[in-house]
Amino acid sequence: MKFIIALVAVAIATPAIAQYNSKTFYGSNGSPVGSSITSSSGQTTFYGSKGEIVGQTQPLSGGTTVIYDGKGNRVGTVSTQRK
């Protein structure tokens, strides 16, 4: 779960520039540990090192992003707005 949250934090902090934006994440030893693909709508899918889906995010209006686990279950939300 910490891995998904870390990936979500990176994805939210980095806006998508192209129609599809892909990133590879590396472990401390330099080997790939996962990747992500962000669509033009802002939805990001996170993949594990074996290509399996480990999580997804879906941005909503108003600066809120919904977080889903690898099975598609809603596991949380993140807001970028300050209160």
Mean pLDDT: 84
Radius of gyration: 12 Å
Strand arrangement, major sheet: 1-2-3-4-5-6
> Any idea what the shape is?
globular
Number of DSSP E strands? 6
Number of domains: 1
How many alpha or pi helices?
A: 1
Secondary structure: helix percent: 10-25%
What letter string, H or E per element, gives the SSE order?
A: HEEEEEE
Gap between N and C termini, in Å? 26 Å
- Which structural category do the helix and sheet elements fall into? mainly beta
Biggest sheet layout? 6 strands, antiparallel
Question: What share of residues are in beta strands?
Answer: 35-45%
The multimeric state of the shown protein is single chain
Low-confidence stretches: none
What does this structure look like?
The protein has one helix at 2-13, and strands at 21-26, 32-38, 44-48, 53-59, 64-69, 74-79. The protein has one domain (2-79). Helix content is 14%, strand content 45%. It is globular and about 40 Å long. The chain is built from one helix and six strands; from the N terminus they run αββββββ. It has a six-stranded antiparallel beta sheet with strand order 1-2-3-4-5-6, covered by helices on one side. By secondary structure, the protein is mainly beta.
